[in-house]
Amino acid sequence: MYQYIINGRKKLSGQIDISGDKNTALKIIPSTILSSEKSIISNIPDITDIKIMLEIMEDLGVIITLLDSQKYEFDCSNIHKTVIDPILAKKLRASTVLIGPMLARFGEVTLPHPGGCIIGQRPIDIHLDAFVKLGAKIEYHEDSYTIKASQLSGAKISPHTVSVTGTENIIMAAALSQGTTTIEYAACEPSVIALADFLNSRGAKISGAGSPRIIIEGVDKIIGGQTTTIPDRIEAGTFFILGAVGGGDITINNCDPNHLEVFLSFMDQIGIKYTRDQHQLHVYHSPDIKAKNMVTNPYPGFPTDLQAPYTILMTQTKGLSMIHETIFEGRLNYVEWLNKMGANIVSCDPHRAIVFGPTPLSGKKIVSPDIRAGIALVIAALIAEGQSQIDNIDLVDRGYANLDERLQSLGASVVRHQIN
Ligand code: EPU
Which one of 122, 310, 331, 371 would you pick to mutate in the ligand 1 pocket, going by the greatest count of ligand atoms within 8 A of its CB? Predict the structure, then answer.
C-alpha cells in the first residue's frame, strides 16, 4: 500500500509527457490473441492495470517479450487454457475484453465477474447478450461465466446503451466470425478506432469505427501486426486542469488535442487560457475561471473520466455549478473528501452535486476512492494550503505512470511512502 504526502501551493510549471492510453492498450493487447502470429505493440504505459493484463495473458500461455522501453512482443501461439485466472481477473474490469478474442479463436472461455474500480454496478449484460446473438451459449456459475461457441456467426447487435468495452469485445469476437455483424449504437471512443485500425492492419474487415454504426465482415484469419498505442487523452485533460489551477504554465507533450475537442470547448467557455498544436497543449495559469454546469456524456461528449478533476476547477471558481454524472452512479464518491478539505459541495443524489465556489482548500488526511477521483484529490492537495496525506495511492497507480516523479519535475512537493 502506498500513500502520498503532498505539501501544497507550490507553483507548478514545466513540461510533461503523456503516456500511451490505458484504455486503448487494455484492448489492443488482448486483441493479439486473435492470431497465432506474433504482434508488437509500442508505447504501452507502465501502470498497474497493464501489469495485471500482462500477467493474465502470461498465465494463459502468451509469451511476452520486452523489446525496448514500453515496446512488447506478444506470441500467442501456445495458449494452453481457456480459464482466465479468477484472482487476476477480479482486479481488472478490462479483463472482460478477453472474452471476445478467446471465444473467437478457441471457442470457449471462462472468467469471473470482472473487478475494477467501484464506481457503480457495472453489469456486463451487453457483452453477454451480444455473444449469444453471435451464436454463443453461456453457462452461469456462482461467480463466473463459461461462454462457448463452436462457430460464431454475424448478427445485428443494438446494445441498450453505449458501452466502450462492450463495443470492443463485439468487434474482436465478430472479426473472426462467419458473416457480417452490425453494431448499432456503438461507442465512438478513440480506443475503438485504434482497435479497429490495428485489427484491419492484421486482415480484419471493420468499417465505421468512430461512428455509432460499425460493420464487421468476419474473416477466416487474423495475422500478426505492429502498432503504437495512441496518447492518453484522459491523462492530457487531467494535466490540463492541473495547469489551469497550479499557479504556473504547463506544456503537455505527446498528446492528441483532437481527442479532447468537447473538453477544450468547455475550457474555452470557462475562460482557461491555452494554446494548442498538433501534439501539444500549453496551459497558462487561469485565475478568472467562470462557473459552468457540466454533464458527462459518451465520446465525444465531456468524459466521465475527467468529471472529478473538473469539480476541482469549479471549487476554485466564483459561483455555483452543477456536476451531472450520467455514466456511472458511484463517481461522485470523492465529494466528502473535498468537503473535508474546505470545499462546499452538496450531493443531490448519486448522479448530481452542486459546487459553491470559490473555496480555499486546506491539506487533510484523505483516501483515494478510485483512479479518477484519486487523481482529482491529488490536484486538490497540490493547490491546498498545508500538508495532505492521501492513502490508497495504489488505485491512482492503476492509471498514471510514475506520477510522483512527473509532478516533482513540475515543482510539486510529493513524496511516496510505502505503508505496511
Ligand atoms: N453498461 C451496462 N451493461 C453493460 C456494460 C455497460 O449497463 O454490459 C452501462 C454501465 O453501467 C455504464 C454505461 O453502460 O453506466 C457505460 O459503461 P461502459 O461499458 O462504456 O464502461 P466500460 O467499458 O466498463 C470504459 C472505460 C472506463 C470509462 C468508461 C466510459 C475501459 C477499460 N474502461 O469502461 O474507464 O470510464 O468506458 O467512458 O475502457 C477509467 O479509465 O478509470 C475508467 C473507468
Answer: 122
